[in-house]
Design a protein that fits this description.
Blueprint: E1 3-4, E2 16-22, E3 30-31, E4 46-47, E5 53-60, E6 63-68, E7 73-82, E8 88-99, E9 106-109, H1 111-114, E10 123-125, E11 129-132, E12 137-145, E13 153-164, E14 180-188, E15 196-203, E16 207-208, E17 213-221, E18 230-236, E19 242-247, E20 258-265, E21 272-283, E22 286-296, H2 299-350
Parallel strand pairs: 6-14, 16-22
Antiparallel strand pairs: 1-9, 2-5, 3-4, 5-7, 7-12, 8-9, 8-11, 8-13, 10-12, 13-14, 15-17, 17-20, 18-19, 18-21, 21-22
Length: 351
C-alpha cells in the first residue's frame, strides 16, 4: 500500500519538527495531530487514552542529498530529539520512496515498485529501536553501501521513525501511521543522462489591461536523477530592450516528474507587445528556454481618453460653427443697413 508523506516544495530547513498531541478519556474519538516543517505535515489518527500528553519529535536533518560511487560505503547520522515530557520508544526502518505529483510529495513504496530508483537495500542501521528519555537526543547511524553494479543516477530511500508501546506496560495508546523521518537522495556517479523539457510557459492572459503579470512555468525532468533547476524569466519591450529579470524559486524535481513554478512581474503601467523568455539551467552546462509574447494595453483608459477627445473635438467644431454663423449674420445685417442707407440717399436726391 502506498502512503503519501506531505512535503513542501522549498529547500528543506535544518530541522523538521513533528508534534503529536494525544487526547483521551471517556470520549469516543480523539486525534493525533502531527505538525511538520518542510517535508512532513498533518496526519490524523484515532486514539483512546485516559490521560493527556504531548509527544514532540525533532528529526534532523529532514533531507540529505549526496553523491556516491559504485562500491563506495558512506556513513550518515540522524539525530532524533524527544521534546515530550515522557520517555519514547521509536522503531526505525528504511523504506524506498518515489515522487509522482506536482507538489513533490514523497510516496513510500515497495522495492518492486521503486524500480531503478530503489536504495533501501543499500542501508544498514546500527539499531532499529531508539529509547529516548524526555528532552533528550539520540542518534542513529546508517551505513550506506552502493553496489558495484549500481545504475548511475538517482536512488531514493527514507529512514522513518514510529512510536512503539512502552516496555512492560499495558497497551493503552494506538499509534496509527504516526511516522516521521529523514529522506535520502543518492546520486550514483557514472554516465548520467540529463534532460529537461519546459512543458508549459504561460500567463493568465495574453492581453492585459494593466500589470502585474503572473507567469507559470512547468518543467518535466527526463533525467536519470533529481534536479534542482535554476530558472529565470527575462522581460523585453517591443523594441527589444531588456526590462527586468525574474528569478524563480529552486525546486527538487524527481526523475520523470513535472513540477510547476510561478513568478510575478510587478510592473503596473505598460503599453504594447512584450516578450518573456524563460531559461532553465538543469544540468552540467545544460539549459533549455521558451518564449512567449503578451500585450499590455489599458484599453478602457484609452477608450475614455478617446471619448474625452471626441467630446472636446465636437465642442470645438460646434463653437467654431457658432462663431462662423454669428459672423455671417453680422455681414448680412451690415449689407442690409448699407442697402437701406443707399435707398435713403436715392430718395433724398429725387426729392
Amino acid at each position: 500500500m502506498k502512503n503519501n508523506l506531505p512535503t513542501s516544495s522549498a529547500i528543506a530547513p535544518e530541522k523538521c519538527l513533528q508534534k503529536h498531541r494525544i487526547l483521551g478519556g471517556p470520549k469516543p474519538i480523539s486525534r493525533l495531530l502531527i505538525l511538520g516543517v518542510a517535508y512532513f505535515s498533518a496526519l490524523f489518527i484515532g486514539v483512546s487514552q485516559t490521560s493527556a500528553q504531548d509527544i514532540s519529535i525533532v528529526v534532523s536533518p529532514p533531507r540529505t542529498d549526496f553523491n556516491i560511487k559504485p562500491g563506495e560505503t558512506l556513513q550518515k547520522t540522524i539525530k532524533v530529539t524527544n521534546s515530550s515530557p515522557t520517555e519514547l520508544i521509536l522503531g526505525a526502518q528504511v523504506i524506498d520512496f518515489i515522487v509522482m505529483d506536482d507538489a513533490g510529495t514523497p510516496i513510500k513504496v515497495t522495492e518492486e515498485a521503486s524500480g531503478r530508483f530503489l536504495a533501501s537495500p543499500w542501508f544498514t542501521l546500527d539499531q532499529t529501536e531508539l529509547v529516548i528519555a524526555p528532552k533528550e537526543t539520540a542518534q542513529i547511524t546508517a551505513i550506506i553501501t552502493a553496489p558495484k553494479n549500481a545504475l548511475p543516477g538517482g536512488h531514493y530511500a527514507g529512514i522513518y521513525f514510529q512510536p512503539k508501546e512502552r516496555r512492560g506496560e499495558k497497551k493503552t495508546i494506538s499509534y496509527t501511521n504516526a511516522q516521521v523521518g529523514s529522506l535520502f537522495g543518492l546520486t550514483v556517479a557514472g554516465d548520467i543522462n540529463y534532460d529537461a523539457v519546459i512543458k508549459d510557459f504561460s500567463t493568465k492572459s495574453n492581453l492585459n489591461e494593466f500589470g502585474p503579470i503572473d507567469f507559470s512555468l512547468s518543467l518535466e525532468n527526463q533525467s536519470d536523477t533529481h534536479i534542482s533547476p535554476d530558472s529565470s524569466i527575462k522581460i523585453y519591450d517591443m523594441f527589444g530592450r531588456e526590462l527586468e529579470t525574474l528569478k524563480l524559486d529552486q525546486l527538487n524535481i524527481f526523475p520523470f516528474t513535472q513540477r510547476s513554478q510561478t513568478a510575478k512581474w510587478s510592473q503596473v503601467w505598460g503599453f504594447g507587445q512584450y516578450k518573456a523568455t524563460a531559461t532553465v539551467a538543469y544540468g552540467p552546462g545544460l539549459t533549455t528556454s521558451r518564449d512567449l509574447t503578451f500585450w499590455i494595453i489599458p484599453y478602457r483608459l484609452i477608450a475614455a481618453i478617446l471619448v474625452i477627445l471626441l467630446v472636446l473635438l465636437a465642442s470645438i467644431i460646434s463653437i467654431r460653427r457658432h462663431i462662423a454663423h454669428r459672423l455671417d449674420s453680422r455681414d448680412e445685417t451690415i449689407d442690409e443697413l448699407k442697402r437701406k442707407i443707399a435707398e435713403m440717399e436715392n430718395n433724398q436726391r429725387q426729392s
